[in-house]
Task: inverse folding
């Protein structure tokens, strides 16, 4: 299975002049093509463009408003392996599962490993628990 990393950049808002390019739409297409080609040289594949909402405050004391930002999405394949064992463990975790069924661990006298029998705290003391 291929693994990808993604890069998102803002779409150009103004066109770029070039020799033989005429009109505002031609200059805008030229600016867009230059952005895509610059990233393609470094191994990024153009995936799509999106127009997404963003909440901005135009001034310090002004009310917030929703504006739309145009972005370009690129991707390239990576050689990183995804550790599926970690993903499976995370997916198997259920926060609503009852934890009351688990037993509290008892520690042995050597404190090396848990055991099923409780540790006697009064073993080295002359007083018995009833006398305390």
Result:
């Amino acid at each position: 299975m291929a693994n990808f990393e993604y890069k998102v950049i803002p779409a150009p808002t103004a066109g770029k002049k070039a020799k033989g390019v005429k009109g505002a739409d031609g200059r805008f297409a030229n600016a867009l093509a230059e952005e895509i080609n610059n990233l393609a040289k470094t191994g990024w594949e153009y995936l799509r463009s999106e127009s997404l909402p963003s909440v901005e405050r135009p001034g310090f004391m002004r009310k917030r408003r929703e504006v739309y930002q145009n972005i370009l999405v690129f991707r390239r394949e990576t050689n990183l392996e995804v550790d599926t064992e970690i993903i499976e463990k995370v997916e198997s975790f259920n926060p609503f599962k009852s934890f009351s069924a688990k037993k509290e661990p008892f520690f042995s006298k050597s404190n090396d490993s848990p055991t099923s029998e409780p540790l006697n705290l009064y073993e080295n003391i002359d007083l018995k628990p009833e006398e305390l």
User: Anything to note?
Assistant: Strands lie at 3-10, 45-56, 65-78, 106-107, 114-115.
